[in-house]
Amino acid sequence: MINTGANSNSTPARPRPLSPNIQIYRPQLTSVLSIANRVTGLILSFGAVGLVVWLSAAATGPQTYGVVQGVIESWAGQVVLFGCTFAFFLHLCGGIRHFVWDTVHGFELRSIYISGWTIVAASVVLTAAAWTISLFVAGGHP
Amino acid sequence: MTRDSFRSPLARALGLGTAKSGVQHWWAERVAAVALVPLCLWFAASIIAHAGSDRAVFIGWIRTPLATSCMTLLLIALFHHSALGLQVVIEDYVHSGVRFVAIVAVRLGCYGLAVIGIFATLHIAFGG
Question: Domains in chain B and their CATH numbers?
Fold first, then answer.
């Protein structure tokens, strides 16, 4: 039961009807990207904690930095970092899409779907580009 | 005469709607977001450019005046935006008495982390 509203104190004979919520609807690009923007924001909040840990380790000394760098360079660390990269670009592109909406533009259904698929494509391309260039640059410093 | 009567009708009505003080919150989140666009792109580009480098190179990079300034600004904007964003998530899903505690904890946690990050940055930049 999500919302019992004002009837929470009484016991009705049968459950009160609820307004349709998220689990009723078939997922659409619009709703999925709205949820994705929030989820990526949450993921990036944890990523921000990682940034502070990384900076603190760099400030503390070579030994501590080595431990953190070891975690980042591990298989699991690279998967998390890759996920954070995609979350970063999706949240960035989604945020820019919100800036356009804030100027009261792009609310037509067609525009919303065009901008939606654009940010998905841009995030995939930017993530791939960031990792390709990173691996290329890292190859120069073995 | 109660204290309340000294306040104008407008002052008593402000903030009592369902949105409370939503505009300030929304606006602050957007201002931080505007700052984050160039700062995050700078950060991503710098990390990519230094991929595979060792600690000495990263330290040397953070010590540059541009990187010290941008990293400090990034940490301020990032954790301000995070605190505001996480607050909305808590307000949407936490309905019990824990809500107030959770919002305060997130606020203090975000500002604490920002200070730790800025201190680490300045320590790298100016420490021996």
Answer: 21-126 (1.20.1300.10)
ipTM of the complex: 0.85
pLDDT tens readout for residues B56-92: 999 999 999 999 999 999 999 999 999 999 999 999 8
Residue with tokens 């930049």: B125
Residue ranges of chain A whose CB lies within 8 Å of a chain B CB:
38, 41-42, 44-45, 48-49, 51-52, 55-56, 58-59, 62, 65-66, 69, 88, 92, 95-96, 98-99, 102, 130, 133-135, 137-142
What would the two tokens of residue B52 be?
């595979």
Distances from the Cα of A72 to the Cα of A34, A44, A53, A68, A76, angstroms = 29, 16, 11, 6, 8
> Which residues from B are below 8 Å from A134, CB to CB?
47-48, 51-52
Q: pLDDT tens, A19-34?
A: 777 777 788 999 999 9
Domain covering A28-140: architecture: Up-down Bundle (1.20)
